[in-house]
Amino acid sequence: MSDCIRSTPLVLLPGLMCDERLWRHQVDYFSPRREVQVMSLVGANTMAALARDVLQKAPAKFVLAGLSMGGILAFEIYRQAPERVEALVLLDCTYLPDTPEKVERRNRQMDDVREGKLRQVLQEELKPNYFALAQQEDQALHDEVMHMGMDLGEEVFITQSQALRDRPDSSDTLADVSCPTLVLCGEEEKLCSVEMHEHMAQSIPQASLKVIDHCGHLSSIERPQAVNGAIETWLQESSLNKGVSSGAR
User: Fold this and answer.
1) What pairs with residue 207 in β-bridges?
2) Collapsed DSSP state (helix, strand, coil) of residue 77
3) Is the N or the C terminus of the chain less surrounded, counting Cβ atoms within 10 Å?
4) ∠190-38-16 over CA atoms, to 5°?
5) Could you give phi then psi for residue 133, rounded to 5 degrees?
6) How far apart are CA 182 and CA 246, in angstroms?
7) 186: closest CA among 132, 121, 249?
8) pTM here?
């Protein structure tokens, strides 16, 4: 890989019911040195269609970073256009499809949201799984997550939930990822286990693993300085080396 990764544009994909606010710390940190673009994951209810939309709006080549739903979508983007992805950052996400139990839960949540219970679903079912113990009392952080979800609204919740529910299994994609990849997660991740991220880092040929202490699912806003530092260090190392050691922690 060439040194161009040092200045390659950075494309950021937010998670379920999140927008550019999820990446505000990363935009502030990286934009003085490279073009940064946060994508809006709205307007389609399949991963394939969302990926096509991102690829239409993204630069010709880019570093791709996705958190949670954004990380899941990153696999689909890579499958559609691997030649455009110079490097990949997978944060707090899974490569597996929904289990039957999760499909049932998503269907029930969508029904609840159609009945006007979006705030209740966000407050009682999503948000409790997001934060590490150290952030449980951070009211400003909790409010920000609720504001993002409520601002996006009911229709976006339903279409994003459908895309997640019906997503393909990305297990076979792991070994096909040929670009340098950083796999990052919070130490107190509740939704996508540390073990799952360890497996990703071991299965992707040029992957490095970073686990952030005192951090849960929304690492980019829970521990932004640690996340920024991990990505920056990895980008520098990826620019200097032809490959990144697999599974390093």
Assistant:
1) 181
2) helix
3) C
4) 30
5) -55, -40
6) 10
7) 132
8) 0.93
Distance (Å, whole) CA 16 – CA 161: 8
Strand partners, 88: 64, 181
In 3D space, the residue among 193, 223, 218 whose CA is nearest the CA of residue 16 turns out to be: 218
Q: Is 226 helix (H, G, I), strand (E, B) or coil?
A: helix
Please give the structure tokens belonging to residue 201: 């880092």
Question: What are residue 154's phi and psi, to 5 degrees?
Answer: -65, -45
Which of 160, 170, 157, 204 lies closest to 184, judged by CA?
204
**Token digits for 158?**
């339903």
- Full pLDDT tens readout for the chain, 249 residues: 344 676 899 999 999 999 999 999 999 999 999 999 999 999 999 999 999 999 999 999 999 999 999 999 999 999 999 999 999 999 999 999 999 999 999 999 999 999 999 999 999 999 989 999 988 888 999 999 999 999 999 999 999 999 999 999 999 999 999 999 999 999 999 999 999 999 999 999 999 999 999 999 999 999 999 999 999 999 999 876 644 333 333
DSSP states along 93-137: --SSPPPHHHHHHHHHHHHHHHTT-HHHHIIIIIGGGT--GGGTT
- Give the Cα separation of 240 and 69 in Å (integer): 30
